[in-house]
């Protein structure tokens, strides 16, 4: 066997081994984005390496004629293994994966050959291989420049096509920008192949080529920005039609400006800014850019994160939506303000520790679904054997269900902040040195912390714990990319009232995954298609998967609704009462109480209520009121009003006849306060906030009511000063 054949056998032996390693991991065992992205790197490097080895200056055509079987094998070997892996090692279809492979992986054969030819023109043997390795690494890490200087986490790259954004988004697809980017790549490298023969004997060609590459690399970000392939800060700023400047913020948003946007939104930012700095003891003044998108889809398009709001501490920027202001503004501002205490040029905690990063933000936010994080953490600790030292070790933070890691790390850091002060906490954030700062091992601090939680006097609520932290259904994470894409398609069918197509998609998704969300949409599709009995029969057959899981409350609720639609009111009442007696959160109990109230007022009204839009539901609930209205029904009406100003008179009228003996009285006034705050009526917001504090008799709501009252009073005081 000659030396050339031995090299080729070794070359493809390595290729096959790499492919079997790739398909042994989740996500990459399916012909889709991840598989194509990793193989694009392999195809680029191996085709360039092969070209360096076998290309001769006789010409491109001769090289391709003599080596096309090998070059085609570089492309088809991964594809064939990917197809077989998808068929036999997963349950995923590979239709869209073929397009990913064609767009992301296949062009890299051209790019690799071109790089190999030009490198072999100036370098030989091991030096050429070393140059190729350096170029490959530079191209792979070049997006870090964009991540550092540009907003967001979405970028396009020569080798692996593009990075779609954060890990929280499962629906990844080929868009027009990716196609444009790959088209320009192909044109550029085809041109480079064409001019190769003219450069071959040109004096000083090496100097000119190196200079050209440096210029292209330097202008990479600005050029992509002009083509819409890179979102620079100026591009993002120009997208928003409105900007409010305060002492510490540039707030970018769009749409029709209302009183909340123009007056309270800047004050809310400044209020949280002051609260965070005071609690952490930070003195440095910083100016933060706050980008508030219309919705998650728009945020995903510009930033590369649909399902999560994010911040970049090193840029002092946060990216949220109008719908998430209440939930995430304070959390993301903690990240931005941590610029003052972060390590290195990224302004992040010691060794990029995620438990320190997210734990600090969660500790200062101190809110988990309306309760203090110590309350939530207490229920986690009672349900899961979590070791604090493990949570803060490396990246084990991501080994837990995400809310568990966030809450426990946040609660623990809040505990040491309260006990040992903010100065030591800031030192910990920078150094990660628990023992040196606190003179105790982290395991000892963890034991103290758990004892502290036990002594807070929280009663254990098994239903609360089950809903938020326990009892997952038999849930299979199968084909997440395909499932997310199909789910989006099903939603579009549902919204266009093609319920047959929608139900087919949701049923197939549920059969593959046992995901409750798909089950819920499948049942709703059947119900809206007037196939109520069929829907209920199937739903009842899933009881064994849902009872005892976090979705058992949804099971009782959906069961009650389906019985109500069938006119079986006794069974409806049984399920509603079961939900009220075992309610894990106020959202379940208020809705169940509202349906009970409606059925007792008018037994025939539920079907109309179920199929109505929010406006009609509000009218129906108000028209059924008697001499007084239950507080939980008021809460449901406010939720349905969704901060629309036209309902302000109706809400004030029903508050006048509210049942003052109801256990949710204080919370209902809190909801009214938040409603008036969000529509820009601060004086009414303050009045109802004060009343919620006075009238509340349910200790579970104390924290949320007190925090709202403090915020409303502070902002109204600033308004009066202005």
Task: Please describe the topology of this protein.
Blueprint: H1 3-22, H2 33-54, H3 60-89, H4 95-105, H5 107-122, H6 125-141, H7 143-149, E1 155-157, E2 161-163, H8 176-194, H9 196-199, H10 205-218, H11 220-226, H12 233-239, E3 242-245, E4 249-253, H13 259-280, E5 288-293, H14 296-303, E6 310-312, E7 317-321, H15 325-337, H16 354-365, H17 373-383, H18 388-391, H19 402-420, H20 422-431, H21 434-438, H22 442-454, H23 462-469, H24 480-495, H25 499-513, H26 516-528, H27 532-541, H28 543-546, H29 552-565, H30 569-581, H31 586-601, H32 606-611, H33 614-623, H34 631-641, H35 648-656, H36 665-678, H37 682-695, H38 702-721
Parallel strand pairs: 4-5, 5-7
Antiparallel strand pairs: 1-2, 3-4, 6-7
Adjacency order of strands in the biggest sheet: 3-4-5-7-6
Total of DSSP H or I helical runs spanning 4+ residues: 38
Number of self-contained structural domains: 5
* DSSP strand tally: 7
Distance between the termini: 88 Å
The average pLDDT score comes to: 88
Care to describe what's here?
This protein is mainly α. It has five domains: 3-229, no CATH class; 240-348; 367-469, no CATH class; 472-547; 612-722, Alpha Horseshoe (Serine Threonine Protein Phosphatase 5, Tetratricopeptide repeat). The chain is 67% helix and 4% strand. The strands form two sheets. It has a five-stranded mixed β-sheet. It is globular, with a radius of gyration of 30 Å.
């Amino acid at each position: 066997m000659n030396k050339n054949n031995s090299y080729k056998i070794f070359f493809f032996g390595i290729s096959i081994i790499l492919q079997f390693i790739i398909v042994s991991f989740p996500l990459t065992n399916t012909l889709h984005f991840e598989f194509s992205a990793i193989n694009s790197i392999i195809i680029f490097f191996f085709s360039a390496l092969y070209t360096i080895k076998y290309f001769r200056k006789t010409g491109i055509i001769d090289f391709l004629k003599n080596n096309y079987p090998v070059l085609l094998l570089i492309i088809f070997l991964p594809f064939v293994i990917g197809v077989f892996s998808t068929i036999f090692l997963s349950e995923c279809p590979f239709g869209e994966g073929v397009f990913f492979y064609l767009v992301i992986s296949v062009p890299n054969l051209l790019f690799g050959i071109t790089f190999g030819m030009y490198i072999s023109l100036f370098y030989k043997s091991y030096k050429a291989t070393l140059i190729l390795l350096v170029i490959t690494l530079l191209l792979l890490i070049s997006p870090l420049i964009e991540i550092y200087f540009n907003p967001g986490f979405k970028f396009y790259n020569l080798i692996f096509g593009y990075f779609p954004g954060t890990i929280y988004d499962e629906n990844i697809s080929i868009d027009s920008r990716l196609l444009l980017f790959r088209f320009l790549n192909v044109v550029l490298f085809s041109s480079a192949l064409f001019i190769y023969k003219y450069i071959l004997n040109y004096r000083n060609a090496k100097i000119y080529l190196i200079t050209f590459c440096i210029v292209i690399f330097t202008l990479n970000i600005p050029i992509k920005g002009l083509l819409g392939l890179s979102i620079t800060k100026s591009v993002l700023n120009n997208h928003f039609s409105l900007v409010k400047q305060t002492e510490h913020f540039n707030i970018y948003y769009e749409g029709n400006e209302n009183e909340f946007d123009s007056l309270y939104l800047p004050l809310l930012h400044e209020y949280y800014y002051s609260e965070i700095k005071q609690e952490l003891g930070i003195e440095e003044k910083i100016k933060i850019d706050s980008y508030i998108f219309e919705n998650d889809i728009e945020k995903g398009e510009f930033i590369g994160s649909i399902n999560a709001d994010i911040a970049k501490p090193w840029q002092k920027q946060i990216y949220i939506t109008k719908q998430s202001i209440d939930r995430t503004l304070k959390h993301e501002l903690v990240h931005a303000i941590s610029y003052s205490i972060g390590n290195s040029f990224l302004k992040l905690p010691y060794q990029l520790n995620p438990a320190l990063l997210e734990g600090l933000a969660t500790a200062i936010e101190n809110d988990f679904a309306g309760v203090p994080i110590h309350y939530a953490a207490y229920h986690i600790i009672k349900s899961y054997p979590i070791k604090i030292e493990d949570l803060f070790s490396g990246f084990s933070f991501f080994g837990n269900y995400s809310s568990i890691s966030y809450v426990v790390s946040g609660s623990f850091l809040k505990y040491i902040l309260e006990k040992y002060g903010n100065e030591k906490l800031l030192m910990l954030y920078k150094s990660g040195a628990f023992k040196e700062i606190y003179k105790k091992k982290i395991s000892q601090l963890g034991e103290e912390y758990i004892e502290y939680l036990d002594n807070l006097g929280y009663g254990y609520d098994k239903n609360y714990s089950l809903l938020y932290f326990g009892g997952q259904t038999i849930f299979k994470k199968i084909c997440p990319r395909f499932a997310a894409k199909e789910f989006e398609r099903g939603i579009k069918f549902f919204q266009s009232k093609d319920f047959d197509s929608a139900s087919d998609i949701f049923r197939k998704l549920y059969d593959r995954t046992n995901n409750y969300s798909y089950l819920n949409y499948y049942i709703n599709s059947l119900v809206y298609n007037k196939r109520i009995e069929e829907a209920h029969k199937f739903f009842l057959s899933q009881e064994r998967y849902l009872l005892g899981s976090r979705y058992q409350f949804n099971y009782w609720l959906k069961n009650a609704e389906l019985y109500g639609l069938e006119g079986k009111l006794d069974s409806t009442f049984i399920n509603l009462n079961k939900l009220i007696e075992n309610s894990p959160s106020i959202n379940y109990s208020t809705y169940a109480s509202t349906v009970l109230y409606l059925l007792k007022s008018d037994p025939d009204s539920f079907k109309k209520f179920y199929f109505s839009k929010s406006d009609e539901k509000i009218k129906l609930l108000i028209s059924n009121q008697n001499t007084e209205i239950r507080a939980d029904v008021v809460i449901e009406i406010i939720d349905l009003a969704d901060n629309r100003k036209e309902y302000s008179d109706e809400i004030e009228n029903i508050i006048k006849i509210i049942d003052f003996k109801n256990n949710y009285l204080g919370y209902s006034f809190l909801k009214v306060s938040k409603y008036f705050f969000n529509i820009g009526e601060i004086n009414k917001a303050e009045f109802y906030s004060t009343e919620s504090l006075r009238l509340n008799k349910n200790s579970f709501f104390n924290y949320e009511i007190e925090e709202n009252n403090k915020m409303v009073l502070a902002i109204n005081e600033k308004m009066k000063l202005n």
